[in-house]
Design brief:
This protein is of the alpha/beta class. It is about 40% helix and about 10% strand. Strands 3-2-1-4-5-6-7-8 form an eight-stranded mixed sheet, sandwiched between helices. Strands 10-9-11-12-13 form a five-stranded parallel sheet, covered by helices on one side. Strand 7, helix 7 and strand 8 form a beta-alpha-beta unit.
């Protein structure tokens, strides 16, 4: 790799290598906050920037708003020089600007990069030579080159000459006890080789394993492939579940048996649908971009269609379960267990549990939920429930006509739930018994 030529980037490399540098993290959510804490843990000065003043106030007071991150973690970071702010003018003081903001879909199921472009546009008035900008948000291949690079060039900056620009996709897996921000390998692609070299030095301060690729498009496509791989295989096993159910076959027994093959098979668990910010959304970033090249990604879109309809499958199973007890959904009291999109976390983004609640309510059900990680139903763009998590006692459980296990948190007393409920619709294969309906 050729040596960095410009004086501005040589000075940046020196600051990074000496660890006498200042990192800015933009977006303090499930991705940005753990990354900020990791840099702070390694003795790097970090400023977190977010447009939400409540988050900023919470962090500066030593409090956490993410269940798996404790107040002690925040206090340790503050003691190591971490601070949070809503003032984007602070961007001029940092050496690295790492962007970790959401990339959702709009109401037409099209990519919405407004959070990324708004963040970059807020940074640019304070951008200066000798800084490195890093995008971590999941997006379509070409975003860094086609949206970020021209914005920098319009302001007189030339990535690879007087500044650096890289793409390094986030790979956070909330609730996974085996991998942390520090230990998940980091894929990095640069606009130029000197940009890549600086990106390696930056992330090497906090991440144990770096995986360098030839350019930003490869890095962007890597993240999409990872999540599309999961989406397609989950769609496959969800479709297999429906077929097996119609044939009177236990799909979970099938998967367990198939998994004994020591090669050529990877087990995936069926469920009530896809949740989280990545798997339900990321495939559509590629399908949208592929149309620019005249390609229809039929395989990806079919998997998305299967997964999209799984909440409806669950609702139909609830109707069957209640019908066995001579009841209808309309007027029945139904308790949904688990609002988070996966177990043992508090993240409800794109959770299929919420769509199940909405569909049941639309059919006249009286809906409640219980989730030890989500005490109050969060604000959402498309769903509005004025609810708080129900405390589970034998009395409250018996008051419901049906329970729906949407998220199998380890905190639940499964024996008590089964003993006290007349019928449970189980989407996670945690129960067995006469009063259990598998969905």
């Amino acid at each position: 790799m050729p040596a960095i030529q410009s004086e501005a980037l040589k000075q940046l490399q020196t600051r990074l290598r000496s660890r006498d540098c200042h990192v800015g993290i933009y977006g303090l959510g499930y991705v940005g906050l753990p990354l900020a804490l990791r840099f702070a843990e390694m003795g790097i000065k970090v400023t977190g920037l977010d447009i939400d003043p409540h988050k900023v106030a919470q962090l500066n007071a030593g409090n956490s708003y993410i269940k798996r991150i404790t107040g002690e973690h925040i206090e340790d970071a503050l003691n190591n020089g971490f601070s949070a702010t809503t003032d984007f003018a602070q961007s001029t003081h940092v050496d690295a600007q790492i962007i970790c903001v959401p990339t959702p879909l709009d109401q037409h199921h099209q990519p919405d990069l407004s959070f990324v472009t708004d963040t970059v546009d807020a940074i640019l008035p304070y951008f200066r030579e000798g800084q490195i900008m890093c995008l971590e948000s999941t997006t379509w291949p070409g975003t860094t080159e086609e949206l970020l690079k021209p914005r920098l060039e319009h302001m007189g900056f030339n990535p690879g000459s007087n500044c650096a620009l890289v793409y390094s996709p986030e790979r956070e897996d909330p609730g996974n006890p085996n991998y942390t921000t520090a230990t998940i390998p980091k894929v990095i692609g640069g606009i130029t080789e000197s940009c890549l070299e600086l990106g390696q030095t930056l992330y090497g301060l906090a991440i144990e394993t770096l995986v360098s690729v030839s350019n930003t498009r490869v890095a962007e496509m890597t993240k999409l492939l990872e999540n599309i791989h999961r989406a397609v295989n989950i769609g496959l096993v969800n479709e297999m579940k429906i077929v097996a159910d119609k044939m009177g076959i236990n799909i979970h027994e099938v998967i367990k048996a198939a998994a004994t093959k020591p090669f050529g098979f990877v087990p995936y668990a069926p469920g009530p649908g896809l949740g989280g910010h990545c798997i339900p959304i990321d495939p559509f970033y590629l399908t949208w971009k592929a149309k620019e090249y005249g390609i229809n990604t039929r395989f990806i879109e079919l998997a998305g269609e299967v997964n999209h309809h799984m909440p409806e499958w669950v609702v139909n199973k609830v109707a069957e379960a209640l019908n066995q007890h001579r009841k209808a959904i309309n007027g029945s009291r139904i308790l949904v267990l688990g609002l988070a999109y996966k177990k043992n976390i508090d993240d409800t983004r794109e959770s299929p549990a919420v769509e199940i609640m909405q569909q049941l309510q639309n059919k006249g059900a009286l809906i409640d939920y219980s989730d030890p990680y989500v005490p109050i139903f969060p604000n959402k763009r498309d769903y509005h429930f004025d609810l708080k998590s129900v405390t589970l006692t034998p009395g409250t459980i018996r008051s419901y006509d049906c329970l729906v296990l949407a998220t199998d948190h380890d905190d639940y007393d499964y024996a008590q739930l089964q003993e006290c409920s007349p019928v449970i619709v189980d989407t996670r294969n945690r129960f067995n018994g006469a009063n259990i309906v598998k969905a």
